[in-house]
């Protein structure tokens, strides 16, 4: 019988003497530690690769959600613009209606004070004052109008600002009356 040939095994690290030496122990420790480090690194890489799919899906979902919300905001922009404009108009309207009662009251008192031969050109109400411009054939009618206004517009100080002959019709006199809040002058004690 032929003798079986043993396969030759080459081991560069001698088992007995080298493993017991300091260099052998350090080399054995380093090889086993680096093997663990390589395995841990491979696990981290695999986890990063697998988490990429989860994060991509999450990113796509968030992008879709952002697009939906942007579409909702864009659709509501016209409504919001209309709503704000309507709100602004309502604010102006409420301010005007609150001033309307004051204007109606003042116009009522002016019309009650008007002598028959006095004609009004304009009435301006605002800023706490009432300015009346008009025409009359006589100074007496203008004076009567001022006295009537003073008696009816109690909290107002009525002054005749301007009186002159009209350029269009010399038989008429043009006048301007200002009725404003009276100025209280305090005298020293």
UniProtKB/TrEMBL annotation:
<keyword id="KW-0812">Transmembrane</keyword>
<dbReference type="Pfam" id="PF05137">
    <property type="entry name" value="PilN"/>
</dbReference>
<dbReference type="InterPro" id="IPR052534">
    <property type="entry name" value="Extracell_DNA_Util/SecSys_Comp"/>
</dbReference>
<feature type="transmembrane region" description="Helical">
    <location>
        <begin position="26"/>
        <end position="50"/>
    </location>
</feature>
<protein>
    <submittedName>
        <fullName>Type IV pilus biogenesis protein PilN</fullName>
    </submittedName>
</protein>
<dbReference type="InterPro" id="IPR007813">
    <property type="entry name" value="PilN"/>
</dbReference>
<keyword id="KW-0472">Membrane</keyword>
<keyword id="KW-1133">Transmembrane helix</keyword>
């Amino acid at each position: 019988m032929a003798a079986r040939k043993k396969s030759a095994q080459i081991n560069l690290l001698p088992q007995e003497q080298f493993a017991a030496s300091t260099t052998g122990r350090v080399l054995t420790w380093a090889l086993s530690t680096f093997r663990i480090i390589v395995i841990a690194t491979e696990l981290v890489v695999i986890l990063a690769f697998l988490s990429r799919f989860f994060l991509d899906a999450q990113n796509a979902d968030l992008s879709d959600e952002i697009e939906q919300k942007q579409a909702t905001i864009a659709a509501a922009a016209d409504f919001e613009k209309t709503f704000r404009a309507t709100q602004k108009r309502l604010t102006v309207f409420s301010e005007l209606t609150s001033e309307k009662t004051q204007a109606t009251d003042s116009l009522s008192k002016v019309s009650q004070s008007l002598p028959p031969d006095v004609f009004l050109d304009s009435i301006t109400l605002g800023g706490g004052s009432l300015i009346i411009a008009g025409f009359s054939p006589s100074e007496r009618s203008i004076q009567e109008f001022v006295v009537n206004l003073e008696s009816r517009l109690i909290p107002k100080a009525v002054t005749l600002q301007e009186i002159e002959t009209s350029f269009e019709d010399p038989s008429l006199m043009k006048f301007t009356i200002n009725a404003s809040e009276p100025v209280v002058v305090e005298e020293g004690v």
